[in-house]
């Protein structure tokens, strides 16, 4: 079956071209200026943007084990509604994804649904206990693309070192949730003006920065690729810039909420804005935006962290950390384009091109002949209220429910098939 | 009526007028408390539940007496903050209490923001009797009432709050309220007990006990709770007493008629020496009796006012 996407503004990491995309089966067959290709199905994109399907390197799909929050199917539905065609679930499932069987289960379940590809991130240590390395070789063979004990930072520098060294041997890399738990203590929000005002215990930026510094040095020591996940502070970014300038193999990611929201959201004790790392101060948000502008930050990820309504509707200290985000990454990132922080090619670099490179999936991240036909047709001007009807996740722990957003995927195409169409009311 | 809110959650969001109205009403109740028969029928038939998720005999007793003097039916419910361990959520607990047709909840809870959370989930009026590190509004009111009685005014006074500022809901409520009423507040304590971003309080942060006490009209000493803060914030109570405790000697640096206060219970010989706590400049017992008047005022204003479903705390 052939599908023709007509009259698109085709965005790649380096340029924008006007034209048509002919999909044959799962693959992009041609990208041409003229539209006289024969196709079984024609979608007129009327000057909208065609971007490579977004690749989200950091999600929590809660499957297996905590499917009441989210499962791979509901997570994938939310993903494609946000233009995302591939996602990397973290290992903190129940049981922990510290073995090939669970890794393969995740991949298989996503394949059966056919909405997105899943590239699991395996646990760095068995049971995420921070002590013994997982069978990384076997897990890589099973389809794991990287290793992390996300949420449970590896305290021991030696364990982190060995994990980085070992992962590198199998062509893989480690992802660091950088947090010194002893310094974060019983903190629940950023330590700053808002924690002083509200009496909510603070987590200092330095609890992130000391670990970022350590993990950059572990990259120096081992030569292995260390990816710092969900960075949130100005100081962190300065450390990463230093690490890169020294030639160490470090990369990093940022979430839309960390470049959009500040800790001011917590003045009203909204548990939907309780997350780890916490929303920080304006100067940190400004630093994240600057890092995206000048390319110091490698990619945008969501840290999509679904939690049930009951779990969030309790005392602030007891509510779990995290917000959903896989469906709002696109509008929040396009807001940067609208503000002139980045252009459309940079948007593609941050959301698909570089992520594909980091996980070594050369069949995607670009709209080019021979690549997988994972494409999102994007209207950056579409305004809509993000409501319960649009929300596809099982969970609704996001401050964006009921808010007006701008920019959406009109169509999401996965391996040549239309898997999402923006509902017309 | 100058107070139209459903609840009394904190001093941070109140206007100067609302605070003064609460203080003036409390002043009127101090007179009832001096009568021979200290009971008025004002809240007859109303049910007040003291929901204490964190133990506090003093505050609970004060609210209980206040309720009884207004002829309300006062019931005590005590539970640990982790009632969820029994499989019951906080909302469930509150909804259960509410369905017994209670009019007012007086709530003490170990987590910041949780009394606001309760207020958002019940139609009953809610009075914050202390939530985590956040606020303890009736304590601020009784502090200010005591000061006003002693000094005849609040505006322009120099008030020093000394001790663990970071972990004190009393300090927060005092600061929010007093700065609105034109009091010059200065803060002092071990560096480990001063929030990193104390500039948000709009107060002077002092560098020494000397600086904190010098020329003060009022000195509020906070209670040190070593059991709660662990052993990291101060090395010993002996050293705390030496550098941060109020002795008779240090008190001479303040104005000659300076008033000494403490939210109680006092660690004698630690933050306050006995000869100061019991001396003639001490307002500690006056604070306790004003506590009842302030709580009567709060119960009265919320209980009598037809302000159900009116402005909430965020409306201003
Ligand atoms: Zn994390």
UniProtKB/TrEMBL annotation, chain A:
GO terms for molecular function: allantoinase activity; dihydroorotase activity; zinc ion binding. CDD domains: DHOase_IIa (cd01317). Zn(2+) 2 binds at residues 150, 177, 230. Binds 2 Zn(2+) ions per subunit. It catalyses: (S)-dihydroorotate + H2O = N-carbamoyl-L-aspartate + H(+). Pathway: Pyrimidine metabolism; UMP biosynthesis via de novo pathway; (S)-dihydroorotate from bicarbonate: step 3/3. Residues 341-420 form the Amidohydrolase domain. It is an enzyme of class 3 (hydrolase). InterPro entries: Amidohydro_3, DHOase, DHOase/Allantoinase_Hydrolase, DHOase_cat, Dihydroorotase_CS, Metal-dep_hydrolase_composite, Metal_Hydrolase. GO terms for biological process: 'de novo' UMP biosynthetic process; purine nucleobase catabolic process. Keywords: Hydrolase, Metal-binding, Pyrimidine biosynthesis, Zinc. The active site is at 303. This is Dihydroorotase. The lineage of its organism: Bacteria, Pseudomonadati, Deferribacterota, Deferribacteres, Deferribacterales.
From TrEMBL, chain B:
GO terms for biological process: 'de novo' pyrimidine nucleobase biosynthetic process; 'de novo' UMP biosynthetic process; amino acid metabolic process. Keywords: Pyrimidine biosynthesis, Transferase. Carbamoyl phosphate binds at residues 58-59, 108, 136, 139, 264-265. Catalyzes the condensation of carbamoyl phosphate and aspartate to form carbamoyl aspartate and inorganic phosphate, the committed step in the de novo pyrimidine nucleotide biosynthesis pathway. Heterododecamer (2C3:3R2) of six catalytic PyrB chains organized as two trimers (C3), and six regulatory PyrI chains organized as three dimers (R2). Belongs to the aspartate/ornithine carbamoyltransferase superfamily. ATCase family. This is Aspartate carbamoyltransferase. It comes from Seleniivibrio woodruffii. The gene is pyrB.
